[in-house]
Amino acid sequence: MLPGAGGSRPGGSGGGGGGSAAGTPGTLTSLLGEGSKRLPQAAGAGPEMLPGAGGSRPGGSGGGGGGSAAGTPGTLTSLLGEGSKRLPQAVIIGVKKGGTRALLEFLRVHPDVRAVGAEPHFFDRNYERGLAWYRDLMPRTLEGQITMEKTPSYFVTKEAPARISSMSKGTKLIVVVRDPVTRAISDYTQTLSKKPDIPTFESLTFKNRTTGLIDTSWSAIQIGIYAKHLENWLLYFPIGQILFVSGERLISDPAGELGRVQDFLGLKRIITDKHFYFNKTKGFPCLKKAEGSSKPHCLGKTKGRTHPDIDQEVVQRLRDFYRPFNMKFYQMTGQDFGWD
């Protein structure tokens, strides 16, 4: 949904654009309505600071402009009138149903990470609103803190690489990838929960079931051809500026994957095993303490949905279809994700 001209912030309930953490510096800045707005940085210094834009924000309730970590300087920053709104230095660009929300929620535990809660969809749907509008969505940060956002559809948006590069060639990109077959089934399951009358997964998969011709125009299939989409990004960013996170390992070893992400972002390794426990009912790791809370936190009820039973012949045909693309993706990234 596009925000209206006089609009409100993105986000869900309790904290526009992604609540800030307990005892942190973000809420405080916003509440006092203070905090500096800086002029653009010199070239090569990272995303530029733009003067205030008076633009609208994508909608939701509450204030704060972006989540910050528990026990960090986010809430205090805002209340004390400190911090600046910066364009993001790092963006989670994909992929849908790969584990992007889990990654961002886990990252927000870190005191030096602040993020917009809702998906801004700036580089695919809202680009005409301009960078000043985009920057105004961001939470306030102190020097040394990283501003982030995540919009998984960027990875498959043709214009996104050039647009992000135009904002800052130094932007760090993160892609959470997952076995493309299980990703497609998860994608379908999400759609099915909203539209129970859609055709079966099997019928949508094929252009011609008899010949086994896969319908690559179906987005659930198209998104998983990772090598094809990555080629577009490599026209604008070196491979070393893109981190590929395993959606499977994010579940089986969240602390290990978060260690890689913290290293990539130049952050101290603060998020470790002690922050997680495994919820056997949902089949997902959960945070022992969520940002802004003393209680354990698991992802919402929409995560961990039971997938419908899919004809195993269809699953095998999809595995055969994706295999050469997966092999190429492994070669491009230098990582073997272990998908069949």
Describe this structure in words.
- The structure is a single chain.
- The protein is built from 12 helices and 12 strands.
- It is α/β, with parallel strands linked by helices.
- A 6-stranded mixed β-sheet has the order 1-4-6-3-7-10.
- Mean pLDDT is 82; it is low at 1-73.
- It is globular and about 65 Å long.
- Strand 8 (206-208) and strand 9 (213-214) form a beta hairpin.
Topology diagram in text:
Blueprint: H1 27-32, E1 67-68, H2 74-79, E2 84-85, E3 90-94, H3 100-107, E4 113-115, H4 131-136, E5 140-141, E6 146-150, H5 160-167, E7 172-177, H6 180-194, H7 201-205, E8 206-208, E9 213-214, H8 219-222, H9 226-233, E10 242-246, H10 247-252, H11 254-264, E11 276-279, E12 284-287, H12 312-333
Parallel strand pairs: 3-6, 3-7, 4-6, 7-10
Antiparallel strand pairs: 1-4, 2-5, 8-9, 11-12
Helix pairs in contact: 9-12
Region (Disordered): 1-81
Domain Sulfotransferase: 88-323
Disulfide bonds: 286-298
The gist of it:
The chain is an alpha/beta fold.
- The parts where pLDDT drops under 50 for at least 5 residues are 1-73
Q: In sequence order, what are the helices and strands, one letter per element?
A: HEHEEHEHEEHEHHEEHHEHHEEH
- DSSP strand count: 12
Apparent shape: globular
In helices, the fraction of residues equals 25-40%
Radius of gyration: 20 Å
Region (Disordered): 1-81
EC number: 2.8.2.-
Protein name: Sulfotransferase
Subcellular location: Endomembrane system; Golgi apparatus membrane
